[in-house]
Amino acid sequence: MTFLNYEQAKGILSWHDAIEALRLGHERPKATLHDSLMGPQDGMLLNRMARIEGLGYGVKVESVFNGNANIGLPNTHGVVAVYSSENGILRGLIDSHIVTDLKTAADSVLGATLLARPESKHLVIVGAGRVANNLVHAYCALFPKLKKISIWSRRLNQSQALVKKLDRLSVPVVAVSDLQSAISTADIISSATMAQQPILKADWIRLGTHIDLIGAFTPEMREADDQLIAASQLYVDNIETTWNIGEISIPVTNGKISRDHIQGDLYRLVNSSSENFRNQSDITVFKNSGGAHLDLMIADAILKKLEL
Q1: b/e map 9-31, b = 16+ CB within 10 Å
Q2: Which InterPro entries does the entry link to (predicted)?
């Protein structure tokens, strides 16, 4: 049995590899999922489990201690365990941070390859944290016609710091202070924030734009307003994992959309290659909600690269 820490696992998969792992994983039978959470709010243990026919079992176990930042430690510590589909042996343990980094950006960019215009030239990233950094690299790898990347965050200095970190990219990256102005010319908008109230407004978005929503993960969180969700061709990564996220549940509660407004998830998108999912004038929205099945797909691909 192998354990891979972050540095050991980093670089094993390219962004193309990670996105292909998710695509192939969604060609398999639909995953069975189960999550469990225990402990107090200031020190929890989260278990996210998945089974995929042919890949086996995956379990992400993470401690979540929100006070760790005050003592210079990460808030989360964990591993992804992968068990063989053939005999149940433990194939390997991988640091959960690298699996999460890869699966989160790859999830969004896989959705974009299926919904956004392939000739997209202007990408706007909303947020300037760790996820935003990964998104820039993943989108650049899969959208070679990008000509400009704009980064906005509530604090301009954070956007500027990320731009400096990305100064070796072949695509020009700029920090912007006016979000509305930036997204008025965007082909793709990818939002990864902790917003509790909408920061993306329907009347700011031009026709033909693809919007990738990542940040919201609780019933109270959302990044797009009701009108934008209602006006869009709405897709999600997994219908089962998105129902209770504010991005979907709040417009449903407000009567702006019904549950059948969701056009499908990655299982439909990946397995319907002959179907055209958008017109040139459509606004498409893809809600990235994650899930242990994605962790399993990425972890399996890492281990296979190492012939484990």
Answers
A1: beebbebebbbbbbbebbeeeeb
A2: NAD(P)-bd_dom_sf (IPR036291), ODC_Mu_crystall (IPR003462), ODC_N (IPR023401)
Are 21 and 65 found together in one domain? Answer: yes
Residue 41 tokens, joined: 């709010």
Q: Into how many domains does the chain fold?
A: 2
pLDDT tens by residue, the chain, 308 residues: 799 999 999 999 999 999 999 999 999 999 999 999 999 989 999 999 999 999 999 999 999 998 998 999 999 999 999 999 999 999 999 999 999 999 999 999 999 999 999 999 999 999 999 999 999 999 999 999 999 999 999 999 999 999 999 999 999 999 999 999 999 999 999 999 999 999 999 999 999 999 999 999 999 999 999 999 999 999 999 998 999 999 999 999 999 999 899 999 999 999 987 667 778 889 999 999 999 999 999 999 999 999 99
Query: Is 120 found in the same domain as 162?
Result: yes
Residues 109 and 72 in one domain: no
